[in-house]
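Collaborator request, handled under Task 6.
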Amino acid sequence: MNTKKTALFLAVLMLISLAAGCKGGSGGPDAVARLTEAAEAMGGTGGYRMKGDIEMSMGAGSTPIAMQLRAEVQNAPEGMRQHMFVNMGGFEAEAYIVGDAYYQKSPGQGWQKMSLGMYKAQNMNTGLVDADQVELMAKMAVDSRVLEEKDGRTGIAFHLDKEYFDASMRMYRQYMEESGEGMPQGWLDMIEGSVTDFNADIKVWIHASSRLIERMEIDYSMGGIPQVGEMRSSMRVDLYDYDQDIVVELPPDAAMAEEMKLAP
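Structure tokens returned to the collaborator:
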């Protein structure tokens, strides 16, 4: 996988998984309390669906890439399961997260898979939030605040910067080492060493009575990526159909997926 394709793949995974499980933040105590309540409320549902749009640009003067996503999430007893689609210019990629593996089907490539640990490392700790990630977000978030309270919804905002990126990469390097899962060392070194700047601004709208997240807006930038330079992306996503008997099952052909390879 060349550097530009790796950057695009990394960014799409980051955005989708962040939308599937955003929690955390520090700053104003009211904002922290409401985010924590929303995280607990989402985790208490059987699942939900989401849909939205992504716009991404890689390098100065590049034409933005527009994508549409849709996904469903099941909070299964053994852990969160996801089934998602990303459409870009008529080409659609499909992906699952089931058990301890991530599966992806791309046009012309068939099904491929990687370990969930490797997937988490690629996402640089911005999604599939677990207890360790909540703690890190709470420690590293900047300027968490309540934006507004209107029409039965509360808007929350927070910021993540390069310190969060660096802490995330250290955390997942340690995670991969302790779990014994393999990852091309050159790939991890390239990502960790090349990104010179990282900024993410996240806004979340929470329904006042149900305490469930209804909308998310994510804007981020990464700088220093080889052959790309700066990458920017924006996503707007709606979350809905909470507790609608959502069941995510891996199809038989995906179960036969080949291991996804990352270039060193």
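The cover message to the collaborator said: "Confidence is low (pLDDT under 50) at residues 1-27, 124-131. The two ends are 9 Å apart (CA to CA). Please let us know whether this matches your experimental observations."
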